[in-house]
Every structure is written in C-alpha cells, then in structure tokens.
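Retry 2 of 3 after timeout on previous attempt. Resubmitting structure tokens to design endpoint.
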C-alpha cells in the first residue's frame, strides 16, 4: 500500500507497546503518531493490534493501572484527533478480531474491516503457479489436481508444498519435480512426514490394513461421500495409516446427506476390524471423536433433528464466555439430545455394517493388496475392485532392489595387496 501510494510507512507491533512500566506504551503511541503527522502524508501499520486492543471491562483485570488499557486509550485519543487534512492513514491487522474492543471498530476509527479468507480452488491454482515459477516442473504434473486436493490450505501451506516437492525431487536426483513429489509434499505438509522406517509388528500391520480398507470401501461405494484418492498403511505423523479423499470442489456448506456420508466413512475402520480381525482396537479413537462431533453438531447446531427442531442448543459463538447463561436448556432436553445423537450414530453405524458385509470380498482383496504394496492410488483400487492383478513392485521387492543397489560389488583383490607369505609390516607399493 505504501509503495503504491509512494508515501512513508511506519510499522509497529502491538506487543512493542507493552512494557513493565506503566505509561511507556501510551508514550510510544504518542511518539508514533507525532512522527507520522510530521511526515504526512504517510501510512501507520499496527500489527497484532489485539495485543493492546482487547475488550475492556471483562472482569479479568487485576486492578490498578492496566498498561494495555492505557495504551488502548492513547490509540483511541490519537485517532480521534485526526483532521481531514492530516493525510495519515492508520491500518491494523489481527487474526483475533472477535476480542477487539468495540471502540476500536466504530466509525471514525477502524471502520473498514477487510476479512482475508483462505483461497478457493482458483486462488490456490494461481498461488501454486506463482511459487512454482522458481523450480522446474514436469510437463506431466497436474497442478489443477493438486489445487483440488488442498482445500483449506493457506498461501503459506501451498508455498511449503512447492518447497518440499523441490527438496524431495532434488534428494532423488530428478531433473524435474513430478506429480509424485507434489503429492508427497502435500501429504507431508498436511499430516506429517511418512515414517517408513517405523517398525510395526505383523499382527498390528494386519489390523491397520483392514482398518484403512474399511474406510476406503465405504468411501468407494457411498455415493454421497467424497471420492477416494489414495489409501496407505505407512505411518505418517501420529496416524498409523491414512485414507485420503479428493473433493471435487470447494465446499462452504454441507448437506445432511453429505454429513451422514462422513459419519459412515468414519465407522468403516472399526467395523472392518470387528468383522475381519475378530476384535476391536484403540486405533479408531480419532474416528470416534470425529463422528461424535459431527453427530452432536447436526443435532444441536444445524437443526437436523426432527424431535428437537430448528433451534440452537449449543454455545452461542457471538457471545463472550462470561456472557453465556449457566444453562440454555432443561434436563429433559439434555436427555433428548443424548438420545437423538445416539440414535443418529446407531442408525448410520448399522447402514455402514450392511454396506461392508455386502462388499466383504472386495474389502478382503483391498486389505491384502495394502499388506502387499502398502500404498494404493485410486486407479489401483479400481483394479483391485475389478479383480485385476497389479503390475507394480511389492514392498519386499523394492527393499531387495535397494539392498542390492547399496551392496558394493565384489571385486578381485588388487595387485598391490600384500600376499600372505609377505613378511609382517611390508606395505603395498604406491604404484
């Protein structure tokens, strides 16, 4: 902004105003605005304004003079003192606009609020193009597919993906960054580095394979679920296995059918363990947490329960925590909420069990393929579903090839090696 306007630019962070000694912050505010007026026209930028601009009178003050309140008062007074001919524009930034004092955002002060959202699919595509200019990208790389597979990614996340892909391609001595490098970089930024050297016992590996195959089967055959992209049993981050989905487009709202499909996908792993392994494990803890959150939100926030109707039963996000009443519904309503949530989960759980029983043979084949190859793409899952054989190398074959490649070739003894009958201490000739 300052470059476009060709004016001086003063920048300071909100935390720079806060000191041990009361009054120092307010003094710095006065000095900053005096310097700006002397250099007008100019722009003042206050970064992380929430450090000093938090809502006053919340009851949490420790008494006496509060340094932050004194600094905030100084900012409010200085901004009120501007005349139309001062030619000073004040800009502030924060990612906690919900905690700002109302006096800061009233007309005459920071009266224009600009929300910077996460980029949509077109924005992600343009951001990826900008960051990929600096590196060599293979002509076969599909940036559109990468943009589709990165919903809710920020610009910094997308820059990190391109950077990680370039590093990965360089480590493998490739001439170009290929699609596989971009996919691996995306997974690493989102879920963490793949722990390929992590040792997992064979019985646990079998449970993980059936668990992920259960998720993949439900995602594959459920019409309302997002399309399957990839499934792997290689540990990544905190997860021992991951089933990836690839949304067709960005979503800003979810329909009831889509939320029910998400519930069914979360159950797939636990049901597959129970049917094929004869026991259940703690690996479904994250699935249980996700399913419980979706089901309760459907009942209490989204009005998707016939018995409870079109009413909010949760916390109101627009009110401060200390403004919330102790109780927003009766004990009878709380019992009804619990019944509705449990009924919703039980009903969709039964539907998922029927779906897995119907495609039991495909799930068995998919789990065996995962144990053999560890990672399967959507195209490879299609072949497994149709009963075809996969032509790619297995994990054991890849490990054997790496071992053979790393093993030094057995060479004949050099001519200058001392013979067995040479006297002790005789060194070979430098020639």
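Retry 2 succeeded. Sequence:
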């Amino acid at each position: 902004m300052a470059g476009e306007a060709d004016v001086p630019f003063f920048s300071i962070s909100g935390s720079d105003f806060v000191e041990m000694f009361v009054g120092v912050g307010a003094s710095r505010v006065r000095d900053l605005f005096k310097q700006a007026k002397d250099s007008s026209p100019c722009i003042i930028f206050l970064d992380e304004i929430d450090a000093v601009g938090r809502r006053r009178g919340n009851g949490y003050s420790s008494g006496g003079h509060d340094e932050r309140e004194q600094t905030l008062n100084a900012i409010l007074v200085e901004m009120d003192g501007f005349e139309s001919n001062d030619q000073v524009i004040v800009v502030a930034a924060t990612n906690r606009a919900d905690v700002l004092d109302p006096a800061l955002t009233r007309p005459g002060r920071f009266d224009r609020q600009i929300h910077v959202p996460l980029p949509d699919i077109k924005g992600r595509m343009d951001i990826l193009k900008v960051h990929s200019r600096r590196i060599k990208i293979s002509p076969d790389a599909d940036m559109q597919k990468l943009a589709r597979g990165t919903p809710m990614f920020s610009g910094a996340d997308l820059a990190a993906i391109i950077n990680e892909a370039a590093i990965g391609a360089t480590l493998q001595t490739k001439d170009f960054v290929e699609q596989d490098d971009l996919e691996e970089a995306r997974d690493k930024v989102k879920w963490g580095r793949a722990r390929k050297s992590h040792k997992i016992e064979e019985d646990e590996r079998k449970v993980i394979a059936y668990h992920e195959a259960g998720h993949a089967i439900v995602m594959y055959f459920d019409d309302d679920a997002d399309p399957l992209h990839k499934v792997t049993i290689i540990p990544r981050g905190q997860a021992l296995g991951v089933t990836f989905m690839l949304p067709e487009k960005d979503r800003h709202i979810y329909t009831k059918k889509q939320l029910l499909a998400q519930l069914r996908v979360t159950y797939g792993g636990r049901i597959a363990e129970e049917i094929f392994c004869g026991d259940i494990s703690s690996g479904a803890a994250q699935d249980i947490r996700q399913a419980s959150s979706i089901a309760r939100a459907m009942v209490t926030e989204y009005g998707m329960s016939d018995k409870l109707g079109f009413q909010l039963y949760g916390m109101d996000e627009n009110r401060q925590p200390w403004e919330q009443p102790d109780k927003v519904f009766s004990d009878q309503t709380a019992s009804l909420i619990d019944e509705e949530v449990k009924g919703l989960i039980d009903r969709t759980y039964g539907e998922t069990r029927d779906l897995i029983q119907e495609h039991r043979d495909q799930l068995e084949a998919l789990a065996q393929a995962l144990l053999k190859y560890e990672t399967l793409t959507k195209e490879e899952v299609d072949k497994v579903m149709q009963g075809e054989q996969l032509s790619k190398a297995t994990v054991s074959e890849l490990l054997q090839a790496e071992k053979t490649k790393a093993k030094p070739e057995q060479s004949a003894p050099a001519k200058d090696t001392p013979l067995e009958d040479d006297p002790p201490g005789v060194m070979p000739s430098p020639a």
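Attempt log closed. The domain at 202-399 is CATH 1.20.58.760 (Methane Monooxygenase Hydroxylase; Chain G, domain 1).
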